[in-house]
Design a protein that fits this description.
Number of strands: 7
Order of helices and strands: HHHEEHHEEHHEEEHHH
Strand order of the largest sheet: 2-1-5
Radius of gyration: 24 Å
Oligomer: single chain
Strand content: 5-15%
C-alpha cells in the first residue's frame, strides 16, 4: 500500500448505536429535566382550571420544540434533543412523536370522572384509575428502554428517530473526546489526527523519517 493512499476511518460501533456519533446523556440530567417539565405541566393544569388539562397535554407534547430541541427543563439542565438523520435540533414534529407516550397518559386522565363503586363507599374515578395505571405501565416501559439502550433511547425516541444529548459534551455536532472514551478505543482506530498526517503525503512522511 502506497504512503499517499488514504486509510479508511475506523471506529468501534456498539450494537444499537449505529447512526449516532453522540454519547449517552446523563440519566440524572434527563430525570431532573423531566421532573421540571412535569412540574410546569402540573402548574398549567392548576392555573388553567377547566382548560388546565388540555394546556398540560399540549405542553408535554410540544415542549421539546420550543427552544431548538429543548424544553424548559432541558434548557435549565443543559441537554437537548437531536434529530439523528439530519444531526439538527428536534422540531415540534419530533417533539410530538417522542412525547406521544407521555401524552397518552394525560389523555387517560381526561376520561370522565365518574366514580367507580368500591364496597359501600365511592372509589376513585375511572379517569384516575386509568391515569395511574397508564403512568405505571408506560412509565415503566419507557424507563426500562432508557436504562438498557446504549444511547439511552426510549420508545418515543425510536419512533421519532431522536436522541437526548448533553450540550456540554457536544459542540457543533462534534463529540468532545474524553479520556475515558479515548482509552476505550480499538487499537486500529484511525483518528482525525492520524488521518490528517496521512493526507500530508510524501512530505509529511519525509518529516517523520528525519526525526
Amino acid at each position: 500500500m502506497s504512503e499517499g493512499r488514504r486509510r479508511p476511518n475506523l471506529r468501534v460501533v456498539e450494537e444499537g448505536t449505529e447512526g449516532s456519533p453522540f454519547p449517552k446523556c446523563s440519566l440524572w440530567l434527563r430525570a431532573t429535566a423531566r421532573v421540571l417539565d412535569l412540574a410546569i405541566a402540573y402548574g398549567l393544569y392548576l392555573v388553567g382550571r377547566r382548560a388546565g388539562m388540555p394546556m398540560a397535554f399540549l405542553y408535554l407534547l410540544l415542549a421539546d420544540g420550543f427552544f431548538t430541541g429543548q424544553s424548559v427543563g432541558k434548557r435549565l439542565c443543559g441537554i437537548k434533543v437531536i434529530y439523528l438523520p439530519h444531526r439538527v435540533a428536534a422540531r415540534f414534529r419530533e417533539s410530538v412523536l417522542r412525547n406521544a407516550p407521555l401524552g397518552l397518559v394525560v389523555l387517560l386522565r381526561m376520561m370522565p370522572d365518574e366514580a367507580v363503586p368500591a364496597g359501600a363507599g365511592s372509589g376513585p374515578s375511572a379517569g384516575q384509575i386509568a391515569f395511574f395505571a397508564g403512568a405505571a405501565l408506560i412509565g415503566g416501559i419507557e424507563a426500562w428502554h432508557v436504562l438498557r439502550h446504549p444511547l439511552g433511547m426510549r420508545l418515543g425516541d425510536i419512533w421519532a428517530d431522536t436522541q437526548v444529548i448533553d450540550g456540554k459534551e457536544v459542540v457543533g455536532g462534534v463529540v468532545v473526546d474524553r479520556s475515558s472514551q479515548a482509552a476505550a478505543r480499538a487499537p486500529n482506530r484511525v483518528t482525525r489526527h492520524t488521518a490528517r498526517s496521512h493526507d500530508d503525503g510524501p512530505e509529511g512522511g519525509a518529516r517523520c523519517a528525519s526525526r
